[in-house]
Amino acid sequence: MRKGIFLLSLILCFCFQLLAQEKPTITVRASEVSNGVVIVTGVNMIDSGKRTSVELQCNVGHSRCAELKAGTYTMVRLPKNHGVYECENVDLYAGDADSTTAQRIGEYCLTEK
């Protein structure tokens, strides 16, 4: 009985973590390739209305790396130690797409300025 309650508690905690995952909108202003790295600059719009400048980077040739066009994207921060880069990893989705059903555009290393 205790194992069942413990297991149910773990499952609920995991579900709440997924639901609470931050999904801010990022507005991409420019994207360029430099020395084998795609560098994307933009503005991150946080729920509180605060804007922060961001830079995303990924390695050219990686299957999840894409040079982005200017526009709006949904950004999902990956949990610590998830992703291909040794930094805070994020996935980007087109517009205000639902990240649970939409196709991921790319995975990037996030640097907030």
Describe the structure.
There is one protein chain. The longest helix has 18 residues. This protein has a six-stranded antiparallel beta barrel. The chain contains one helix and six strands. β2 and β3 form a beta hairpin. Helices cover 16% and strands 42% of the residues. The chain starts with a helix and ends with a strand. About 8% of the residues have low confidence. The protein has one domain. The protein is an alpha+beta fold and 113 residues long.
* Overall pLDDT level: 81
* Biggest pleated-sheet summary: 6 strands, antiparallel, barrel
Instruction: Provide the spatial order of strands within the biggest beta sheet.
Output: 1-2-3-6-5-4
- Specify the structural class: alpha+beta
What string gives the helices and strands in order?
A: HEEEEEE
Strand tally is 6
Strand content: 35-45%
Uncertain runs: 12-20
Overall number of domains: 1
Radius of gyration: 16 Å
- Counted by DSSP, the helix tally is 1
Distance linking N and C termini:
50 Å
Measured as a percent range, the helix fraction is 10-25%
Shape verdict: globular
Features:
single chain, 113 residues, alpha+beta, six-stranded antiparallel β-barrel, 16% helix
What is this structure's SSE topology?
Layout: H1 2-19, E1 25-34, E2 37-45, E3 51-59, E4 71-77, E5 89-94, E6 106-112
Antiparallel strand pairs: 1-2, 1-4, 2-3, 3-6, 4-5, 5-6
Task: Summarize this entry quickly.
The chain is of the alpha+beta class and about 110 residues long. About 15% of the residues lie in helices and about 40% in strands.
